[in-house]
Amino acid sequence: MTAPVFVVDAVPGAGTFVLEGPEGRHAVSVKRLQAGEELVLADGRGRWAECVVRAAEGKDRLTVEVTADHEDPAEEPRITVVQALPKGDRGELAVETMTETGVDAIVPWAASRCITQWRGDRGLKALAKWRATAREAGKQSRRTRFPEVAELVTTKQAAALLATADFAAVLHEDRDHPSGALATAGLPAAGSIVLVVGPEGGVSPEELAVFEAAGAKPYRLGRSVLRTSTAGTAAAALVLARTGRWS
């Protein structure tokens, strides 16, 4: 089992460091770490440190010794998923599993057929939940770089993002679509890959036309139709394997 990850604003250098606050409480009161056990401090942006516990105090204070610090470079190609807003808490499920799989960025998209709408305070709270989910899933899956969760985008804004990608695809439910399968598409070894996941009702013909004009062709995953909350994870896994990031 790899060492548990705890998030800090800035990764400390060699010497002792005191982990306090919510992360310290989790380490002391939930994980119940003891002297001699190992852990990792990470900033979620690629910097991380190997540490050994020296002492636990109270309910939320852990003193550790930093034994080594590192910086992981951003992986290539960079994988971004433009995710249409799912119903209920399936949005957090999508963010959680995509984070665990290895997606680098998640962009919430207000598709025309989305039942869920992010407006006002409700939208701000929903975005905060997505970001908190990405952070917690990043810790749980022992990532040192957590995915960025962007602001909600319109179809026009999503198209602008697709136009900058080295490869862009819209996941399509039509298994006979002439663009073919994502499993056989030509993928770049570096640069950026952007995948669009539509809502439960599918991507509208108008949205599909806008995305195709931006350079994103529709591709199918397989014979079965996946839910919007699982399609991004499946597509990301396929891309990660095909581009060598899982090798």
TrEMBL record:
Annotated ranges, domain Ribosomal RNA small subunit methyltransferase E PUA-like: 19-66
Family according to the record: Belongs to the RNA methyltransferase RsmE family.
Protein name (Swiss-Prot/TrEMBL): Ribosomal RNA small subunit methyltransferase E
Single annotated GO MF: methyltransferase activity
InterPro entries attached to this UniProt entry: Alpha/beta_knot_MTases, PUA-like_sf, RsmE, RsmE_MTase_dom, RsmE_PUA-like, tRNA_m1G_MTases_N
Its job: Specifically methylates the N3 position of the uracil ring of uridine 1498 (m3U1498) in 16S rRNA. Acts on the fully assembled 30S ribosomal subunit.
Keyword Acyltransferase included in the entry's annotation: no
Source organism: Streptomyces omiyaensis
Reaction(s) this enzyme catalyzes, per UniProt: uridine(1498) in 16S rRNA + S-adenosyl-L-methionine = N(3)-methyluridine(1498) in 16S rRNA + S-adenosyl-L-homocysteine + H(+)
Gene Ontology biological-process annotations: methylation
Organism ancestry: Bacteria, Bacillati, Actinomycetota, Actinomycetes, Kitasatosporales
Pfam families according to UniProt: Methyltrans_RNA, PUA_4
Localization: Cytoplasm
